[in-house]
Amino acid sequence: MQQGTLMRKVKSKSWKKQRYFKLQDDCMTIWYQSKRTGKTESAFSISDVETVREGHQSEVLQSLAEEFPPERCFTIVFYGRRGNLDLIAGSAEEAQCWIQGLRQLIDPKSFALTFALLCLTWIRDWFQKADKNKDGRMNFKEVQHLLKMMNVDMNEDHALRLFQDADKSESGTLEGEEFVLFYKALTQREEVLSLFQEFSEDGKKLTLLELVDFLRQEQLEEEGTEEMAMELIDKYEPSETARARHVLSADGFLMYLCSPEGSIFNPQHRALWQDMNQPLCHYFISSSHNTYLIEDQICGQSSIEGYIRALKRGCRCLEVDCWDGPNGEPMVYHGHTFTSKIPFREVVSTLGKTFWGNSSLPPPLMGTSPPSFHLQRGQQASWRNWALQGVSLSPTPQELKHKILLKGKKIGRLEDTLDGPGDEVPDVSDDDNGAEAEEERRRAKVVLMDDVPITQYGSALQKDKETLAQALSDCVIYCKNVSFRGFQEAHSHSRPSEISSLSEAKARKLIRDAGNEFVRHNARQLTRIYPSGMRTDSSNYSPQEMWNVGCQIVALNFQTAGTEMDLCDGLFSQNGRCGYVLKPPFMRDEETLFNPSDPSSREGPSPITLTIQVISGQQLPKVANSKDGAIIDPLVRVEIHGVPADQARQETKYIENNGFNPRWDETLQFQLHVPELALVRFVVEDYDKTSRNDFVGQFTLAFANIKPGYRHIHLLSKDGTGIPPSSLFVHIRITE
Asked: Among residues 269, 282, 289, 714, which one is catalytic?
């Protein structure tokens, strides 16, 4: 990583300012300063960075594509609502230096190094915040102020004792290593130390065999525990001497428990672990509604950023509403509203750049039925080629790698498209020359633009032929849109290549009146659910009730944070975040008896019991816009989202005035009748006896991904981003 690199910071086509960017010595902070004044403008932590996009992957950089090559451009994307940082380096080499360096620093595989650096960063940050007079020392009054900032309400005598123990120089102030000692004493994890000593014979270290005992007895690790113990020592033990002796210190033990291996989320399920050779209708598919919108449905902004964010979040079903634009250039926006517009060409370009770098699995692209749907020649040819090569009548995600599916109206049957030669569109590049190339362009234009639709698509096939361009129809392969006229007709006439779209209200009625038929229908055919038109504020319905009957494409407004998106993120955070989750076996059987309203209809093991001991919390954030000096009173609520019989919630008592290291030591217990469909949501709130509790943090995951034992839960903010180092420490047991 280079130091003090001069780059252009870009906010718009006309706003391009040169700034010096530098990675500080802690390897966790980047600051930038004005070239002209030399004044530091801003700084950010590596922990705030979600990803780094290479090339023209933002609207601003796309607008500068002719001026600056993609090799010099990159975008730093932050967690939460902080705006992206678009940068243009002086050379392709400098850009790569920063891109690769940042990616290495934010890579979770380098957790041990990153965790240690983060700890030092947090300590330094707290010191700088509390050192009011900036003399590099901290007196006891400043320490008391620091405790308030850290969400700690500590007895003054105890705080003074910790202060004096750390003041080795007896100067009445803390500086340098003295403050580090004070911070470590403050963050001492008694509950973890007690657990460590329970398995350590001398109370100072865990031998290899003692660590193996802990992994087997408490963490319920079954295979390869000796090899795993060796790996954990090598990875998380900070002392070289201890590593050489194959022992784990208390610090190393805590580091392991805070690591991905110590997380409640089974690390093996983070990777692609499910069978991807089933028909598409056998998967839940991460799906968005009006993907281009990043605000409300009436006057909100349309932006390619909506597509980028959705794809990066694992979404695989995107919506593209195309309408006539000036000069034959189609535009994407929410029709008959005041939302802003973006060129269709930019959407397709963004999808190509963003998607293929994110996953090789296909997203069905959703197209509605506006008065006119223009597709440019090159774009149609590309989509058609991706969709048509060598796949069966009932394709699987594995077969559809590197292809894109379009959902929409179609003339005729899938078999006709696959069997017939069709009107192939010549692949003529923009820089072709000569009369032959010009003739190819003319013929291509005739093929694609002759039968441009000019009215709303009708339901009758004849009307479809009159209003739907054949070339566009031929692009719709495995997601032919058909009207839903009841389960009996669908069973008699539907094909695996067809899909029906239902409003949330229609879907709820079908769930209530014919739950089992709905499950069977979804074992054969794709169903898409979309929000009510009354949700003009881009609010969401609960996706869980739709998943309970096997609906695959449950479209949500990704721009709106809340429980519904927490559930969506929780379900699709597994399986390599590919956006596809295999439905349980009893939902893939076309003759299944399962009905979510009757758990006994599920074939399988008897109900299981989930026991959660909520032990403690660590460095919980303050509530947004809270008063100066206010300290939260945290409680933990555990919610079960699943079939109606499994829906439940329980919560701990609240801990008064302690958001830094609250201890609950409370046990919550749940019985799950259909655990295969259950999602577990952990929520931390600030208790308020006079008004509604305030949100502090949450974490949601599918029950199938829970790892039993002593585990940390790393909390997320309201919009699904990390808030390190905030976490919960729990003990999980699962019994039949």
From this structure: 289
